[in-house]
């Protein structure tokens, strides 16, 4: 069956009769994400809501005032997923979420154009494609594509968009000799019952069930974002078409504005400034490392010289690092003391690292309670516990625990 949306992809409102309405628990797939659903599947005499297929995601819309959250193809019928039932025999007004659909049309027709140019001009055939929530990609049967070719492909596509070349749909019978002309590009064969060919001027003919623009100028612009390795022997070419380019550009402008505020200088200076900051940070970190190392030696001497000799050491320095903690433990290794050191993770406040060192009997008495309070993970090995903690909020409670324990132990 050829759906109304495939006859005229620009229809946004249409009246049709409900044939069937059944309960369903089939999940909703939203750009590859699987979402639980419980509701109804409605079949109509015809539909302007596109059921997912040929790489194009499903439409969403309304049947009267009832929301349609997914449309799937089953055989030659379309199942409309609604939260509420609609009685069979009812005439309903179908409405479509046009901004979502037009976006899909721009990405899908854009894909056809890109695939055609890649194959015709550069012998780079498309083996599959993916339309994502923010970006799309074409899987190309090649291990690499040069930046130079990408630039030429983008320029060619945008020139053809400027020429406003018509995009038309041909319906062919299975024995039509014209059929040999049209590609399938190894794309999903879920719509093969309807032999529908999308033609871009005399540039491309391609079998497809999707909804398309009627003229390349409706694509506005194609922007290639780059390539990345795909499956074995394939390369994924990421791209944006039309409104998505404008949206992505606005996001980049917002980020640039935020960076201009942070770096207090114009965008052309950002790279230079960040490089400088990174260099400075490296030097500062090295200096801090040296200071912490000296501080660790100072702490060790101070503890060693304390009279009477302390039974335990409890040290929490937020700004310390694992090296500092390890140096303290090493320096006090043979002093017969219970040592607890902790530091905070600079990137995740409240989380951090602890080391406990001492007699196994003391650890047995305190270890479990300390790791419980601080939500720690690790093991006691060779007279030492070393591990990560998830909540340094309980550090004072631990300090009290250790103090009480050693003040009561004879
Ligand atoms: Zn297609």
From TrEMBL:
Segments forming a coiled coil: 274-301
Cell compartment(s), UniProt: Cytoplasm
Entries under Pfam families matching the protein: tRNA_SAD
GO cellular component: cytoplasm
Keywords of the record: Coiled coil, Cytoplasm, Metal-binding, Protein biosynthesis, Zinc
Keyword flag Repeat: no
Domain annotation Alanyl-transfer RNA synthetases family profile: ranges: 1-251
Gene Ontology MF annotations: alanine-tRNA ligase activity; ATP binding; metal ion binding; nucleic acid binding; Ser-tRNA(Ala) deacylase activity
Function description: Functions in trans to edit the amino acid moiety from incorrectly charged tRNA(Ala).
Family: Belongs to the class-II aminoacyl-tRNA synthetase family. Alax-L subfamily.
Name this protein carries in UniProt: Alanyl-transfer RNA synthetases family profile domain-containing protein
Organism: Euphydryas editha
């Amino acid at each position: 069956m050829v759906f109304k949306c495939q006859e005229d992809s620009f229809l946004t409102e249409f009246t049709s009769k409900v044939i069937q309405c059944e309960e369903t628990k089939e999940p909703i797939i939203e750009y590859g994400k699987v979402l639980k659903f419980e509701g109804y599947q409605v079949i109509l005499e015809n539909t302007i809501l596109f059921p997912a297929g040929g790489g194009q995601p499903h439409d969403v819309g309304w049947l009267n005032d009832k929301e349609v959250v997914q449309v799937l193809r089953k055989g030659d019928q379309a199942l409309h997923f609604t939260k509420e039932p609609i009685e069979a025999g009812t005439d309903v007004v179908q409405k479509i979420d046009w901004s979502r659909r037009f976006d899909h049309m721009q990405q899908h027709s854009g894909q056809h154009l890109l695939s055609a140019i890649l194959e015709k001009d550069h012998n780079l055939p498309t083996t599959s494609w993916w339309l994502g929530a923010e970006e799309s990609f074409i899987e190309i049967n090649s291990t690499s594509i040069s930046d130079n070719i990408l630039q030429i492909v983008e320029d060619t596509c945008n020139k053809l968009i400027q020429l406003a070349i018509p995009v038309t749909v041909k319906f062919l019978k299975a024995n039509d000799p014209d059929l040999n002309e049209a590609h399938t590009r190894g794309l999903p064969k879920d719509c093969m019952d309807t032999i529908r060919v999308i033609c871009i001027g005399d540039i491309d003919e391609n079998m497809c069930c999707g909804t398309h623009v009627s003229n390349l100028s409706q694509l506005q612009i194609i922007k290639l974002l780059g390539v990345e390795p795909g499956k074995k022997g394939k390369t994924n070419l990421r791209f944006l078409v039309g409104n998505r380019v404008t949206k992505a550009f606005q996001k980049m402008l917002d980020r640039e504005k935020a960076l201009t505020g942070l770096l207090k200088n114009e965008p052309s200076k950002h790279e230079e400034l960040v490089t400088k900051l990174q260099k400075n940070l490296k030097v500062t970190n090295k200096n801090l490392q040296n200071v912490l190392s000296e501080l660790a030696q100072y702490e060790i001497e101070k503890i060693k010289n304390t009279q009477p000799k302390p039974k335990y050491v409890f040290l929490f320095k937020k700004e310390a690092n694992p090296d500092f903690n390890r140096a303290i433990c090493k320096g006090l290794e043979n002093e017969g003391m219970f040592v607890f050191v902790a530091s905070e993770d600079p990137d995740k406040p409240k989380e951090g690292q602890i080391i406990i060192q001492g007699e196994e009997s003391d650890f047995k008495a305190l270890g479990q309670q300390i790791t419980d309070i601080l939500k720690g993970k690790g093991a006691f090995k060779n007279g030492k516990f070393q591990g990560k903690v998830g909540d340094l909020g309980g550090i004072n409670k631990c300090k009290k625990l250790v103090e009480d324990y050693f003040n009561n132990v004879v």
